[in-house]
Design brief:
There is one protein chain. The protein has one domain. Helix 3 runs antiparallel to helix 11, helix 9 crosses helix 10 and helix 13 packs across helix 14. The chain is globular, with a radius of gyration of 22 Å. The chain contains 15 helices and no strands. Helices cover about 75% and strands about 0% of the residues. By secondary structure, it is mainly α. The longest helix has 28 residues.
Amino acid sequence: MVETKPTRSILNRLAPWIRLGVTVGILAFLAGKVNWTSLAQRFTSAHPGWLVAALLVTFLSISLCATRFWFLLRLQKIHLPYFRAVRLTFVGFFFNLFLIGSTGGDAVRIYYLLRWFPHRKARATLTILLDRIFGIAALFGLALLLLSGTADRLRADATFAPLANALPWLGPLGAFLLLLAFILPGLLPNLPLPQKLPGRAVILDLLHSLRDTMHGGWNTVGAVIVGLSVHLASFAGATLLARSLDLPINYPLAGLILVLVFTASALPISVSGHGVREGVMVFLFLHLGISSDPAAAIAYSLLIYGLGLFWSLFGGLAYLTLKSSAKIQ
């Protein structure tokens, strides 16, 4: 008897087209608002020295992403050579360029890990998930620290005043959640799972993997420090980029902008965040008192995307040198 494939719902079939429609709609709306002459002047008047500096700092940020990935692999007892982890990270960034959503590169990384370490399938998949979690946790943790440096600017606008007023309790809440993140994984392997639970062995392996991650000694410390450094470097790149465009954006403000823009563009409502990223940037520039000219916000947004795009293209070269069939012991 031949099993029939489960039918996809109408919403699932329409989802890619909805995302494409949202992207095209936002970009068309912004195209009608922007002064194209002003936008061109923003690009041509950018200071090349600051642009090059921002480009190099972006390379540092991506390299730190690879180092965080390598630490997390070690915590899962997956011994991938460091430079192969770097190449695989760049390959992931490359595939994010044209696969829908920001997780296409993760799927490619999982594919290679499963081919190289077939006996570590659960831990390999968990590593990619933890890589995302560590990145998001570090991003929002740093955002809490940077908010204090932008509190006055936030209070000056009614849209962001509630966020500024919430600062006194956001910090303790974040510290409490961080403490739980380190305590709970140590208790998970002791959960009384039923002996006949389907997939019990895999679940136990994952629970032990989480404990190994949060209680892995210097490897855990390294993953945390490098995870924070990834975003510190990306904030520095955004600050240097603002310098190149003569925008009044300091380091804390650049960090806050990146947190809000990255969060919005990660929502699955557009193609790889295009359109949403630019729309949110225009909104932030207006309400944070940076510039009322949409061309300034769009130029800044496109150059931030361009920095990552430039280095991601090198992932295509790295992809050509990877061998998917070779197992690593």
